[in-house]
Amino acid sequence: MERHRRRPSGATFLGVQGAYHKSLDLYINCDAAMEKDTSTLHWYSISDILSTGVAASNECYKGKYADATHVTPKPGQFVFFVRPIGPAKHLTTRAPTL
Questions:
Q1: Which of 74, 53, 76, 73 is nearest to 7 (CA)?
Q2: Per-residue b or e along 11-30, where b marks 16 or more CB atoms closer than 10 Å to that residue's CB
Q3: Rg of the chain's alpha carbons, rounded to an integer?
Q4: How far is CA 8 from CA 2, 5, 17, 49, 69, in A?
Q5: Quick one: DSSP state of residue 77?
Q6: Mapping DSSP to helix (H, G, I), strand (E, B) and coil, where does residue 21 land?
Q7: 44: number of Cβ within 10 Å
Q8: Rounded to an integer, what distance in angstroms lies between the CA atom of residue 66 and that of residue 45?
Q9: pLDDT tens-digit profile of 31-86?
Q10: Looking at the chain, which terminus has fewer C-beta neighbours within 10 angstroms, N or C?
Q11: Using CA atoms, how far apart are residues 28 and 77, in angstroms rounded to an integer?
């Protein structure tokens, strides 16, 4: 699902946190999945996103699964991975364009 919103004037970084999606399911941000506190918020440069595109790290999957979920973002895209809390059954990606 893509959401297009105007960024606030003067904003230079953004942070994203996966939470709910049309249900009571909880998600873990895959950029912090290996950290002690999985709710850690990472910050991403808006200028990098706009000029080259940014793919957040995917710590939810390793090995062949990491290769299968590799994404090369285009300028203006931010790719962010989340997974449901509990056994990793599938991976959800979002690639909104700023």
A1: 76
A2: eeebebebeeeeeeeebbbb
A3: 14
A4: 18, 9, 18, 15, 31
A5: B
A6: coil
A7: 16
A8: 23
A9: 887 777 767 788 899 999 999 999 988 888 777 777 777 889 999 999 988 887 76
A10: N
A11: 21
- Find all residues with CB under 8 Å of 95, minimum gap 6, and list them: 2, 71, 73, 77, 78, 79
Model pTM score: 0.66
* Measured CA angle at 73 (ends 40, 61), to 5 deg: 50
Return the amino acid letter for 36.
Answer: K
Rounded Cα distance between 32 and 34, Å, is 6
Tokens of 40: 């850690």
